[in-house]
Amino acid sequence: MVDVKAKLQEVFQLQKMHQHVIKITCAEERIEKLQKLKVEILAQAPAIIEALQQDLGKPAFEVASSEMLSVISEIDYYAENLKQWMEPVEVPSRNEGAQAKIISEPKGQCLIYSAWNYPFMLLFLPLIPAIGAGNVCILKPSEMAPATSSLSVKIINKVFDESEVAVFEGGVDVATALLELPFNHIFFTGSTHVGREIMQAAGKHLASVTLELGGKCPVIIDEQVDLEKIVPRIASGKYTNAGQVCLAPDHVYVKENQLEEFVRLVGEYIQRSYFENGELTKTDLSKIVNERNLQRLEGLLEDAISKGANVRYGGEIEDRRFYPTVLTDVSLDAKIMQEEIFGPILPVLTYTDLEDVINQINARPKPLGLYIFSEDQSVVNSLLSQTSSGGATVNDVLRHMLEPNLPFGGVNESGIGRYTGIFGFKEFSHERGVLYQTPVGSNPLETFAHAPYKGKLEMLMQRMK
Ligand code: NAD
């Protein structure tokens, strides 16, 4: 660890010197770097798929669609828009003849932590705005996805010099050693628990933070909707990556008299999507990342059952794969309703009055995402206006994250700050307000604010009326 700390210091100092060179790069130079990254990612596509299969048993399609495509699309989006985002923005000035401009400058030295559930995407997606905004960076991949972590080192080292972007692999020891360094900005994706520690450590150096955390994302289904049509959207969002998705529907609220139909339809979806001749088709369902998380999920299930829950589908475990599971009759006191599930277990709760649903949601920390299924705009408006969440999707799940013109992030316990698209560029930039004053002598009122003040107070008071 002594050696790692010394190396961290060395790279940090190197980047400290080099940040000024990177800061003055133009849009074309930054885009060129991002394009180089894109070429390398595409060249490494088979290795990326292989690494994620090793770490999470992730289906190749899901690797391509959710780990790689989002990174490639974001690079393309930056290539189209970065030049315009970097332009100073002129705003009206109160001083006649003067010019007021907002100039985006890089924050400087940034630190990016990735979580293990999308270990590739969560490392590279924030790197794009960091580079686009002209920063130098140190990346810390998740140690719980070791194959992806070591491949990321290979990709970064091929594209960037360590004076601009460097990667440090390792566990909590490396993660906490990094926090001792006076970075200008820390971008963290992970649990709310560790997020608090990051914010506390950032306080020592007054570093700004982006915290992309988790939470219990609820789904609310209005009784008017056609369940047959919407269930595939909810179920695919729940069981993709075996529910190990920060935005996955955590639990569902359905009108009491629709419970049975909803459960039956989810069961049919599970059969259709994950089983062949009664056997689990392992190629399309990710593994639970490790034994510890498998035991955590088993513990949540056992606790729910002990408090009255019925397992309607699933519940079995095979080869670190947790079968897509549906629960009914779940007590609100069960642990599964207190903490983020982060696995393929779906509690289906019922309501008779939407007010009760609103009260339950508002009694918990604000979630990262909230999903409403309704054709009735007044129901949608009422649910949106009486709740809060990082983001929301109406009549689908997860999708707001894929919309580059919307900010993505949490609120309070589900996170602080946002990214993707221009919001990421702003997150990694400092918006510097610059006033270009008029020449001396061109404004007859200029000396009004200079001493002596005799006789001026009355005029000033008069002006405020
Ligand atoms: P985690 O908090 O355990 O780890 C995240 C990162 O923090 C890792 O790189 C880890 O090495 C590092 N870390 C661990 N302990 C640390 C410490 N004491 N000090 C500093 N760094 C430390 O999270 P995880 O288990 O990898 O990820 C799961 C969580 O992440 C879930 O809660 C999920 O909802 C959330 N998540 C959020 C998003 C989002 O975009 N909002 C995306 C994915 C996952």
Main features:
about 475 residues; alpha/beta; Aldehyde Dehydrogenase, Chain A, domain 1; Aldehyde Dehydrogenase, Chain A, domain 2; 2 domains; 7-stranded mixed β-sheet; 6-stranded mixed β-sheet; 15 helices; 20 strands; binds nicotinamide-adenine-dinucleotide
Provide structural commentary.
This protein is an alpha/beta fold. The protein folds into two domains: 4-213 and 415-432, Aldehyde Dehydrogenase, Chain A, domain 1; 218-409, Aldehyde Dehydrogenase, Chain A, domain 2 (3-Layer(aba) Sandwich), CATH 3.40.309. Helices cover 44% and strands 18% of the residues. It has 15 helices and 20 strands. The protein has helices at 2-23, 27-43, 45-56, 60-86, 121-132, 146-159, 172-179, 192-205, 227-239, 259-274, 291-306, 354-363, 377-385, 421-427, 456-464; strands at residues 89-91, 99-106, 109-113, 136-140, 165-167, 185-189, 208-212, 218-221, 251-255, 275-276, 279-280, 310-313, 317-318, 321-322, 325-328, 345-351, 369-373, 391-394, 415-416, 429-436. The longest helix has 27 residues, at 60-86. The protein starts with a helix and ends with a helix. Bound molecules: nicotinamide-adenine-dinucleotide (NAD). The site of nicotinamide-adenine-dinucleotide (NAD) has 30 residues, from helix 7 and helix 8. The site of nicotinamide-adenine-dinucleotide has 30 residues, from helix 7 and helix 8.
